[in-house]
Amino acid sequence: MPIAGKIGNEIGGVFACYLCIAVMFLLKHNIYELISVQYYLITIIIPIFLLFFLMPHCKGTIEISHVDALLIILFVWVFIHSIVTGVSIDNISKFGILGLFYILCKCCYKKTINLEIIILPFLVVSGIESVLFLLQYFIGGADTVMPSGTLGNSARLCGVLMMLTPFCILMFKSSNNVFKKIYATIFILNNSVIILAFSRAAIIALLIAYIYLAYKNNYIRFSKKYIILCVVVVCLILSLLVVLKYDSVVGRLLIWKITLLQLYPNFLLGKGIDSFIPLYNNAQSLYFAKKIGVFDKESSVAGFVAYPYNEILNTLVELGLIPCIIVVVIIYILLKTKTESTVGIYLKSIILATLVFSMFSYTSKVYLMLVVFTICIAVLDVSNSEKKAVVVLSLNSVIKYVCAAFLLFIIFFQSLSLVKYIECGQVHECFASGRSSMALNDCEKYVKRFSKSYIIMAEYGKILYDEAEFDKCTEVLDRVANRFPDPKILVLQARAYMKINEYGKAEQLLIKASNMVPSKFEAKYWLFKLYQKTNMERAMVVAKIISQQPVKITSDYVMKVKQEVSDFLKF
């Protein structure tokens, strides 16, 4: 797949689109962390790439295969599910972009452009991200932001790098000397980041991909000696990864256990996109309600959970069983082909690696991973010589105009969303930096605009509490807790109820928060303070639990709580 035969304007067009990504590196750290501006930038850049680069190359016909038919069913299911469960248009546009990316990749690949042109911008961006990560890792203190992740949350970045690394090997083998050096450099950078970040899911996934590639390229053979060697190596690496982060392993096993035991009634039809957070954390609170006063390993590692760290469980809870079955069938169709090209082998290794990564992490929450996975499926389906077309569609001008109109709408809509969310980040920063000094009238004019942002609403609830508007505070925090039941929000809501003598509601919230995160002291401490006013016998019971609870991280607050409880028990 040499690039030399391509017209310079084509390459320039690709990099002109991806030049916008440079904006991501200039974003402030707090804006990225709080409102995910990078997601909106990506959902603007990708449609620009599709509209101005891929669409002009779409000619002739497109063959609708069995994989395409299944993907259409999956898209319709997600679309209907999103409407029924009240998901925002933002999620619908996200899947719409992926659908168009898939169609345009199938139309262009092999006909007018090759895989290298499609994937090259992603590889360059991954190299830039890796350099920024390494600078931040070794120098430290740099306010550096990457499109896929930060030093504080490297799993997102490592997931993207893991998927793109096999592409580096493929391009290295088929390019000229100049590009060989570029791909080799990106390969070394990406692997270095994955190892230094110690992303266990990415390490395991990449190891599986390398073993698969070594077998398919005849570096290892299907013999007893090589099988034993591979099993021993994999077991040693897995054991090392488990030992080095044992608490994290126990935590993920706990999440899977509670999800399977408590949330299985939702597995058939699902509860909607982003419904996992409230469903799971409420289930975790009920689980530990049966183990009050028991300080085992599970209670010590339990925390507020935002992801199930398993895409199968996440899909079952949010979308139901049917999407899981469809995805499994699609992957089976793509992997079962016997006649394999070089491109097909490497794409299969990426799909296998992504499946392994998805067993331990959150692929669907990283949009760039979804984009790269879409490219892999589209190109592999085109490369499959055994497939038979179900329907053949002609790409006439009407279809192109409809697609172009849809892309322009998405670019416009996501641009407005980006502007709004940047302003949302600025408002949040203003709220958080000076809650008590800001007048309520000034807050309320922002709250009306950003009522769907739980971050803004949570800060607004804190301002209401500081201003002694306790009735309104409880109403605002109740709306936040329904979508994002963070124990800290529940505790603040309970404290507001205590101020207006609603002790029954405060008790329910504090019990829920203390059971949700049994290793923390804050909810138990305020439950102890509540019972001091209402029931001294229960206050004594809670005080004994607090005094016996082991301390994971020593802090002034924890020592103060321990001392106060100790003094209470003495009297």
From TrEMBL:
Keyword Chloroplast annotated: no
SUPFAM superfamilies linked to this entry: TPR-like
Key words, A-Z: Ligase, Membrane, Transmembrane, Transmembrane helix
Membrane topology: Multi-pass membrane protein
Transmembrane segments: 12-31, 37-55, 67-86, 118-139, 193-214, 226-246, 312-335, 342-360, 366-383, 390-413
First-listed, main subcellular location of the protein, grouped into a coarse class: membrane
A Gene Ontology cellular-component term: membrane
Keyword Ubl conjugation: no
Subcellular location per the Swiss-Prot or TrEMBL entry: Membrane
Name of the molecule in the record: O-antigen ligase family protein
Lineage: Bacteria, Pseudomonadati, Bacteroidota, Bacteroidia, Bacteroidales
